[in-house]
Every structure is written in structure tokens, then in C-alpha cells.
Write the C-alpha cells for this entry.
Amino acid sequence: MNLQFVKAGTSDALVLNSISKQAFDSDTEVGAASPGGPPGYQSVSFHVRMARMNHLFKLVDENGVILGGAILFRQGDTLNIGRIFIDPQHFRKGYGIFMMQEIEAMFPDVKAFMLDTPAWNTRTNAFYTRLGYSEVKRNPDFVYYTKECRR
């Protein structure tokens, strides 16, 4: 795998928006009652704004093809992983694991990574647990995870 995880620009927003919509709408296969996603998941203007604020990242292959993306928020010594998404045609190829490892490596001074995911989503809950994230809180809608850094 010759992949790169880098900051996305505003020119990437249209492609990343399309991938985001496809990825989150595919959650109907793992428990979602209907297509949908987090706020802005299918909004080009949202993705442009995230790129302008340096929160939008992209996963690209050796040919420059965008395979997925992430929205990350740094808050002091904590990184909130707002969302990650992979083009559904590339599910189960290790790209999500690669992206999460790159996110963790990209912020060596972060003391904790935080994220949340829908409680009904069997795919993402298993994924984050497998990557060493610990559940810290749960409500009927969301499971909240953290991963402390021991560097």
C-alpha cells in the first residue's frame, strides 16, 4: 500500500463530500434506520469550510485518487476525531486502520484522542475497540471513546 494521509484543500471538497455521503449512507447495512450521517456529511460548503479551517484531511493512493477523508479538531493536548470515512468500494482493505494510525502519528504531542460513534453502528464500534480505544461514556444514541497516549 502506497498511501498518503495529508491535509485536504478546498479543491478536494467536492470529491470528499461525495465519498462522505456514500460512506455514511452505507451505514444502513450496519444498523442505521435510513441513509444519513453527521451534520454536514453531504454538504460541499461544510467540507470547504473544514478545509479552510485546516480540519479536513484526505487519504490518497499512489495515483492521487482520494480514497477517504477525516475531519480532525485539535483542542490543546487532545485531538477530537470528528469523523473518518472511506469510499465504500474500498471498505475492508485496511485503509481505515492506516488512516487512524496516520492520525495518531501526525500528532505526536497529543495526550489523548477522542471520538464518538453511533451506538447502533456495529462496524465502527468494533473498529475503534480493535484499535485500542476505550469506551468512556454511552447514551442511547452514541458511544464515546478515548485513547490515551503513553509516549
Remarks:
- The mean pLDDT is 94.
